[in-house]
C-alpha cells in the first residue's frame, strides 16, 4: 500500500475525528502532489503546500472534537461546511463531505448539501487527479481513476466535462495551469469542452483570471500551453478583442522567448505583451484590466518600455540604467534580452548579455555608486556650502553623472569642491 508521510498535525486531526466515529481523509492537491513525487523523478522536490481534510463530521461536530485538544477552530466557511484548524502557525482546512447545488453565474454553488459518502464529495471536484483521497490505514481512495491519469500525465474532468465547466468556468484556466505546471496533456473530451465553453470565462472576476494566468505563465511548460491555448488566455484577459492576436498567427519565436525566460511572471508577461506589438499606452491599459497593483503595473510597463534599447558593454552605461531601473528590474531586463537573443539565434547577443551580467555583479560587489543614495554627500552638505534649495536636486544629479562617467571620485571633499565649482559657474553665468 502506498504511504503518504502526513504531517503530525494532520494525523492528530484524522485520529481525533476517527475516534469520535467519523471518517476523515486528506484530499485533493496534497494527494496528487504526493503521488507525483513518488512516481516521477522530475517531481521529486515537490512537497504539498496545503493539507486539506474531508470528513463525514459536520462543522459543529468537528469543533466539539478538536477544541478539547486545545486546537483553535476558526469558522472560515461554515455555510459551505469548512472550518480551519490552527495548530502553531499552520492552518488546516477541514470540510464536511458535500455535494453542490445549482451554480450561480458559472462560478459558485448557490447552496451545498452535506452527505455521508466520500465518493459523492469527490465527484463534485474538477479533475480526476484532484479527486483522490488518502487515509493512513486505508491508502488511496480513487473512484475516478485519477491515479492512472496521473501516471499517464492526463488532465481529465471528473464525469462530464461540459457540466464541470458550466458549473465553474474558472476550471478552464485551472486545466491550463496544471498543464503548464506539470507538462500534462488535456484529455480529448475535456479539451473539446474547454473550447466549447471558453465564453463562460466572461463570468469570472478579473482578479481570479489574473491569478490563473500568472500560474500558467510561470509553469515549466508554459510555451506548450500558450502554443495551443493562447486564444483562450487572450479571451479570458480581454474578451472578444483578443490582445494576443499576433501570437495566434505568429507563435514560434515569441513562445521560444517566453520559454527561455526564467519561470517568473513579470519577465514572461513583459515579453508576451511586448512581442504582441502592443503600444505602450495600450500596454498600460491592458495591465489595468486585470487589476494589477500599481507597483507591479509600473514594473512591467518599465520593462516593456526598455526592451528595445541597445545594450552597451560599458560600466558607465550599466550604472546609468541601474539608476533608471534599479538593480532588480535591470536584472530582469537582462534575462528578457537574453531570452530574446536565444529565440532569435543570436549567439553574439547572448555573449554580450553575459558580459554585462558579469560587469553588473562586479559593480554590486564593489558597492560602486549608481544612484543618489550612494553618494558620499547629501542635500544637507550642499546647503551648508550655500547651494540654494531649488538647485540641490539638480546638483546631486550632476555629481552622480560625473561619478558614473569617472570624472570625479565619490569622496565628500571632492564632491564639495565639485559643487562649489558648479555654484561659482552658476553665479557667474546665472
What features would you describe in this structure?
This protein has 430 residues and is an alpha+beta fold. Helices cover 55% and strands 11% of the residues. Among the domains are: 1-152, Beta Polymerase, domain 2; 372-429. The strands form 4 sheets. A 7-stranded mixed β-sheet has the order 3-4-5-2-1-10-11. A hairpin with a 3-residue loop joins strand 7 and strand 8. Helix 7 runs parallel beside helix 9 (206-218). The protein is elongated.
Concise overview:
This protein is of the alpha+beta class. It contains 21 helices and 13 strands.
- DSSP helix fraction: 55-70%
Separation, N- and C-terminal Cα atoms: 87 Å
* Rg calculated over all Cα atoms: 28 Å
The beta-strand count equals: 13
State which percent range the strand residues make up. 5-15%
Task: Write a concise keyword list for the protein shown above.
seven-stranded mixed sheet, single chain, two-stranded antiparallel ribbon, 55% helix, elongated, 430 residues, alpha+beta, Beta Polymerase, domain 2
Write the layout of secondary structure elements.
Layout: H1 8-19, E1 24-27, H2 29-39, E2 52-55, H3 59-66, E3 72-77, E4 82-87, E5 90-96, E6 98-100, E7 103-104, E8 108-109, E9 112-114, H4 118-123, E10 133-135, E11 139-141, H5 146-151, E12 154-155, H6 161-167, H7 170-182, E13 185-186, H8 188-196, H9 206-218, H10 222-238, H11 245-249, H12 252-260, H13 265-275, H14 280-289, H15 294-306, H16 315-325, H17 327-344, H18 347-365, H19 379-384, H20 389-404, H21 412-429
Parallel strand pairs: 2-5, 12-13
Antiparallel strand pairs: 1-2, 1-10, 3-4, 4-5, 6-9, 7-8, 10-11
Helix pairs in contact: 7-9, 7-10, 9-10, 10-12, 12-13, 12-17, 13-15, 13-17, 14-15, 16-17, 17-18
Amino acid at each position: 500500500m502506498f504511504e503518504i508521510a502526513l504531517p503530525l498535525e494532520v494525523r492528530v486531526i484524522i485520529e481525533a475525528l476517527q475516534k469520535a466515529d467519523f471518517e476523515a481523509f486528506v484530499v485533493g492537491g496534497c494527494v496528487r502532489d504526493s503521488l507525483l513525487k513518488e512516481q516521477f523523478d522530475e517531481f521529486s522536490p515537490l512537497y504539498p503546500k496545503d493539507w486539506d481534510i474531508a470528513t463525514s463530521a459536520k462543522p459543529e461536530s468537528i469543533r466539539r472534537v478538536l477544541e478539547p485538544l486545545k486546537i483553535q477552530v476558526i469558522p472560515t466557511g461554515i455555510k459551505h461546511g469548512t472550518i480551519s484548524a490552527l495548530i502553531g502557525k499552520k492552518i488546516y482546512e477541514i470540510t464536511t463531505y458535500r455535494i453542490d447545488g445549482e451554480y450561480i453565474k458559472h462560478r459558485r454553488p448557490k447552496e451545498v448539501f452535506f452527505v455521508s459518502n466520500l465518493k459523492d464529495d469527490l465527484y463534485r471536484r474538477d479533475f480526476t487527479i484532484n479527486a483522490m483521497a488518502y487515509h493512513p490505514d486505508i491508502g488511496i481512495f480513487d473512484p475516478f481513476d485519477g491515479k492512472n491519469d496521473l501516471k499517464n500525465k492526463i488532465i481529465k474532468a471528473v464525469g462530464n466535462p461540459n457540466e464541470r465547466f458550466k458549473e465553474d468556468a474558472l476550471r478552464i484556466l485551472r486545466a491550463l495551469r496544471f498543464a503548464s505546471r506539470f507538462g500534462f496533456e488535456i484529455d480529448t473530451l475535456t479539451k473539446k469542452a474547454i473550447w466549447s465553453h471558453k465564453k463562460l470565462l466572461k463570468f469570472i472576476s478579473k482578479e481570479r483570471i489574473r491569478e490563473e494566468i500568472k500560474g500558467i505563465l510561470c509553469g515549466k511548460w508554459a510555451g506548450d500551453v500558450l502554443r495551443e491555448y493562447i486564444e483562450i488566455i487572450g479571451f479570458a484577459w480581454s474578451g472578444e478583442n483578443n490582445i494576443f492576436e499576433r501570437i495566434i498567427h505568429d507563435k514560434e519565436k515569441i513562445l521560444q522567448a517566453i520559454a527561455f525566460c526564467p519561470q517568473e511572471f513579470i519577465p514572461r508577461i513583459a515579453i508576451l505583451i511586448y512581442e504582441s506589438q502592443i503600444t505602450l499606452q495600450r500596454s498600460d491599459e491592458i495591465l489595468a484590466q486585470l487589476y494589477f497593483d500599481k507597483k507591479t503595473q509600473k514594473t512591467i510597463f518599465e520593462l516593456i518600455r526598455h526592451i528595445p534599447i541597445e545594450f552597451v558593454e560599458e560600466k558607465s552605461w550599466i550604472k546609468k540604467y541601474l539608476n533608471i531601473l534599479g538593480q532588480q528590474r535591470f536584472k530582469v531586463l537582462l534575462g528578457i534580452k537574453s531570452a530574446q537573443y536565444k529565440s532569435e539565434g543570436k549567439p553574439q547577443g547572448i555573449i554580450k548579455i553575459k558580459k554585462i551580467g558579469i560587469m553588473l555583479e562586479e559593480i554590486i560587489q564593489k558597492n560602486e555608486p549608481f544612484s543618489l543614495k550612494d553618494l558620499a554627500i547629501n542635500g544637507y552638505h550642499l546647503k551648508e556650502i550655500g547651494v540654494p534649495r531649488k538647485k540641490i536636486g539638480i546638483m546631486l544629479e550632476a555629481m552622480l553623472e560625473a561619478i558614473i562617467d569617472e570624472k570625479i571620485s565619490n569622496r565628500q571633499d571632492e564632491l564639495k569642491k565639485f559643487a562649489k565649482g558648479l555654484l561659482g559657474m552658476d553665479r557667474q553665468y546665472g
